[in-house]
Design a protein that fits this description.
It contains 24 helices and no strands. It is an all-alpha fold. It folds into three domains: 83 residues, no CATH class; 110 residues, Leucine-rich Repeat Variant (Alpha Horseshoe), CATH 1.25.10; 105 residues, no CATH class. Helix 15 packs across helix 17 and helix 19 runs antiparallel to helix 20. The longest helix is centred in the N-terminal third of the chain and has 17 residues. It holds the Pfam family HEAT_2. This is HEAT repeat domain-containing protein. It comes from Natrialba swarupiae. GO terms for molecular function: oxidoreductase activity.
Length: 419
């Protein structure tokens, strides 16, 4: 069959003859044959043989760099994208001017932004990615136009570039892309807004907590803890009713981050406001998520704020699990976490606690801090004090980091010495 007609290449594809297709990709004099060979290689499943797979990618990269025909180069770029998107970074480096050897002539251009207007979307995609690597905020106006490109790959790369550059001018356009018809673009927009991280960018993420796409909701909810104020609390509370367990778990962690990020002079105010917001609705889902988070090996801010919050919202739901979680926290190496657990256990005031506390006291050595804490809780549970009395009987220090607590302890010790 004549090489003028590329249909014979599809027979090679049906027989998975990748290496034969490579011969036509690299050796044919006809652009249509090279174009179709690249296109077909992009659609074939990659070989299980590592050497063959690398050979195909190297050939496609050479074609993308050095073929004299724009359409063939574009087809090779598309094939690389389909087979191994990470390999595109080598071409992105070419366009960003980072390559030292083997730089193709077409990459030696004055303005990378010019490629955002190229006929082939594959070139526009590379240009958008390269502009992100160059990190030039002068490219933002051109990138923002590319965020609405007809090709989703171009939109995705342009959006990622905007996130990398981090220019606040991108926020409104990225917020619009949260409603893009492509899930891939929606995810990229949410991640870019999170990367920019300004107040406006984070506020733009709040509507994304109601996205139809789980991954977008996870990204949006996961970033709201960076606020350190009450702005996102309602959105986080709503997320505890999300149908996705991953979203609910992410919302719980974000709420704890929000408490940890609160300015020290507003910590008490924000804690009380969060507590009030939560206790007006059904907290069963949040209680479940907090128990799950605290049952692992979380960082101190999760243990501290999670234990405090659990004590505030725990009700009849998951009672046994809550008790077990709080009893474990009596042994926490962080003193504040342990004190929050003591307060929470007393406030729960469950008679079933007495026997569990007695077993814990019996099994702990006399010098154990855990034993002393359990004895304190047992004494208060037996006497059933009011909530106010409990709060006053346990040193309730609102801090955001251990240094604050250490400072306050030193101040108290100094006061006692002066009496």
């Amino acid at each position: 069959m004549s090489e003028e007609d590329p249909t014979f290449l599809y027979e090679l594809a049906r027989n998975s003859e990748e290496l034969k297709l490579l011969e036509y990709l690299t050796g044919s004099e006809k652009p249509i044959i090279r174009y179709r060979a690249a296109e077909i290689l992009g659609g074939l499943a990659s070989s299980t043989n590592d050497d063959d797979r690398d050979r195909v990618l190297r050939a496609l990269l050479r074609t993308a760099r050095h073929d004299e025909n724009d359409s063939v180069r574009a087809s090779a770029i598309d094939a690389i994208y389909l087979r191994d998107e990470d390999s595109l970074e080598q071409l992105v480096a070419d366009l960003a001017g980072e390559s030292i050897d083997d730089t193709p002539e077409w990459a030696e251009i004055d303005r990378t932004t010019d490629w955002l207007e190229a006929e082939h979307p594959e070139f526009r995609m590379l240009a958008a990615a390269a502009l992100g690597r160059i990190d030039d905020d002068n490219a933002i106006p051109d990138l923002l136009e590319a965020c609405t490109d007809s090709d989703l790959r171009v939109r995705t790369r342009a959006i990622r570039a905007c996130g990398t550059i981090g220019d606040p001018r991108s926020v409104d356009v990225l917020a619009d892309r949260l409603a893009d018809r492509s899930e891939q673009v929606r995810r990229a927009a949410a991640a870019a807004l999170a990367e920019i991280g300004t107040r406006d960018a984070l506020e733009a993420l709040i509507p994304a907590t109601r996205s139809s796409t789980e991954s977008v909701r996870v990204i949006a909810v996961g970033e709201l803890g960076r606020f350190g104020n009450l702005v996102p609390v309602s959105a986080l509370v709503d997320s505890f009713e999300d149908r996705s367990d991953l979203v609910r778990r992410t919302a719980a962690r974000s709420l704890l981050e929000l408490l940890a990020n609160a300015p020290s002079d507003r910590s008490h105010e924000i804690r009380e406001a969060v507590s009030d917001e939560l206790t007006t609705g059904d907290t069963a889902s949040l209680v479940e998520q907090l128990v799950t988070l605290l049952s692992g090996n979380p960082p101190q801010y999760v243990r501290r704020n999670g234990t405090w919050l659990l004590g505030r919202i725990a009700g009849d739901e998951h009672r046994a699990d809550v008790q077990e979680c709080l009893l474990r926290a009596l042994d926490d190496s962080d003193e504040i976490t342990a004190k929050f657990a003591m307060t929470a256990l007393v406030q729960l005031g469950d008679p079933s606690l007495e026997s569990r506390l007695r077993r814990l006291i019996r099994d702990e050595p006399d010098t154990s801090a855990t034993k002393r804490r359990a004895e304190f809780v047992l004494e208060r549970v037996k006497s059933s004090p009011s909530r106010e009395a409990v709060t006053n009987s346990v040193e309730f220090t609102y801090v955001t980091d251990p240094a604050d607590y250490t400072r306050k302890k030193r101040e108290q010790s100094s006061d006692k010495r002066d009496e």
